[in-house]
Design a protein that fits this description.
This protein is mainly alpha-helical. It is built from 20 helices and no strands. The longest helix is centred in the C-terminal third of the chain and has 23 residues, at 375-397. The N and C termini lie far apart (56 Å). The relative contact order is 0.18. The structure holds 2-acetamido-2-deoxy-beta-D-glucopyranose (NAG) (2 copies). The site of one 2-acetamido-2-deoxy-beta-D-glucopyranose has 3 residues, from α20. Keywords: Signal. This is ER-bound oxygenase mpaB/mpaB'/Rubber oxygenase catalytic domain-containing protein. It comes from Allacma fusca.
């Protein structure tokens, strides 16, 4: 059989079409529109906190999977990786304020040393970067999703079988942890609270079941998964301009939202907790749900931050300072207030020291007009971030972190047999 190159291509396309049903693409019909009517953002806590974190869904793609859209999202995410990483780091303020999410992290990682934390932050970021780079249809993609899903199972089993760990108890329990020596910057938090009080507070907080409440079956649950998904996606979707993400179309953002809905689904999130499955048709709904999640669940908890919350957030930022060229915690807080909440951080700026003002300019690069107007500068920042990751990876793991098999097998310190 003598195939011309055109014929070969046709044969390949045909083969692709034949294989598609097996991959679960384009074959399933989605049920009627309201079959998976999403839980409203207002009630996600109520429904989500007693729902297991993993729906046990099969690893195939869902009926609403749109390969082209997901690839648009990947392309966008690759080009804006630095800015997206910046956005996720900023999201650690609202995420760290969420009591349920915070307790999982604290309980699971109570003994971990700062070097282990750095490793695991880096591994997570590398994983995310690989998800932006890999072919979604490749076996490596599936393997890497499966791996993270297993890690979640390990974390879930661990927190379910352990007592709550609260920083408020550290002094009396006498337990030796990484937190014993951690002193938060009390003046900084006072200033933050003062500045925050100028934000109009219009939503009341919905209360979660306590971590060790016996009626609470699942500690890592669909609610906490939804909060994590929020942290990876919401700020760039809701507020791209203020993050310096200017060269983008609406379709780019929709692709990004869809890509993460696919990732959430593949990690076992139930469809009713995914807000942005069909962002092209339901773009306003998607954005409103992300906004409501912030207003109803996260922002009220930022207002109510206690010592534990402040300590956790500050320690997250000290952790990212190793990855991000030295941005100190107050710079993140100032950025959050001014760029995301739209109020002046007068008090925080007053207590900034010189180092923080100088290093703060690193942060302003990311959101500056220069970065957003000059494409070349944006590309420069992006490449800078990616090479920083490689450098740290070589130092911490001995490889550059670009091989998904190696990242999955060697970069996570959390093994599933805890
Ligand atoms: C992190 O802490 C958990 C819980 O104590 C423990 O099982 C795990 O081995 C720790 N990881 C490292 C790298 O120390
Ligand atoms: C990634 O690493 C694995 C295991 O070492 C190796 O078999 C594979 O060839 C590597 N892949 C690439 C693209 O280098």
């Amino acid at each position: 059989l003598d195939l011309t190159s055109k014929g070969r291509r046709a044969a390949l396309i045909l083969l692709g079409l034949l294989l598609q049903p097996q991959l679960g693409i384009g074959q399933q019909q989605c049920p009627a529109k309201d079959f998976y009517e999403p839980v409203s953002a207002n009630r996600i806590l109520e429904f989500g906190q007693n729902t297991q974190h993993d729906s046990g869904s099969p690893p195939s793609f869902p009926c609403w999977f749109d390969l082209n859209l997901a690839r648009i999202g990947q392309d966008f995410a690759r080009k804006n990786f630095g800015h997206l990483f910046f956005a996720t780091s900023l999201s650690l303020i609202p995420l760290g304020s969420d009591e349920q999410s915070r307790r999982i992290i604290l309980t699971a990682r109570r003994h971990n040393k700062s070097k282990d934390r750095l490793k695991s932050n880096l591994a997570t970021s590398q994983q995310v970067l690989l998800w932006y780079n890999m072919d979604i249809l490749s076996p490596q993609w599936k393997q890497s999703i499966d791996h993270v899903r297993q890690i979640h199972h390990g974390v879930s089993a661990f927190v379910n079988s352990h007592e709550e760990f609260s920083l408020n108890q550290v002094d009396t329990s006498g337990e030796k942890t990484v937190w014993n020596d951690f002193k938060r910057d009390v003046e900084m938090w006072k200033a933050f609270k003062k500045d925050l009080s100028t934000v109009q507070r219009s939503y009341r907080r919905s209360h979660a079941l306590a971590f060790n409440d016996p009626s609470k079956t699942f500690k890592l649950n669909q609610y906490t998964m939804a909060m994590a998904l929020w942290a990876f996606t919401a700020l760039p979707i809701l507020n791209p301009d203020n993050l310096g993400i200017r060269h983008r179309s609406e379709k780019d953002l929709q692709g990004f939202a869809h890509l993460w809905a696919i990732i959430g689904y593949s990690l076992g999130m139930e469809e009713q907790f995914l807000f942005c499955k069909n962002p092209v048709n339901e773009w306003e709904d998607c954005k409103n749900s992300l906004k409501d999640t912030f207003n109803n669940h996260l922002l009220p908890q930022v207002f109510d931050l206690d010592t534990e919350g402040e300590t956790s957030i500050e320690s997250f930022f000290r952790g990212t300072a190793d990855l991000f060229p030295g941005i100190p915690p107050d710079v993140w807080l100032i950025n959050f207030l001014e760029k995301q909440l739209g109020v002046k951080a007068t008090n925080l700026r007053r207590q900034q020291n010189v180092a923080s003002i100088v290093l703060g300019s690193t942060a302003s690069w990311f959101v500056s007009d220069l970065a957003s107007q000059a494409q070349s500068f944006q590309t420069f920042l992006n490449n800078l971030m990616i090479s920083m990751f490689r450098l740290h990876s070589l130092k911490l793991f001995g490889d550059d972190g670009t091989n998904s098999t190696i990242v999955a097998a060697n970069h996570y310190t959390w093994s599933i047999d805890h």
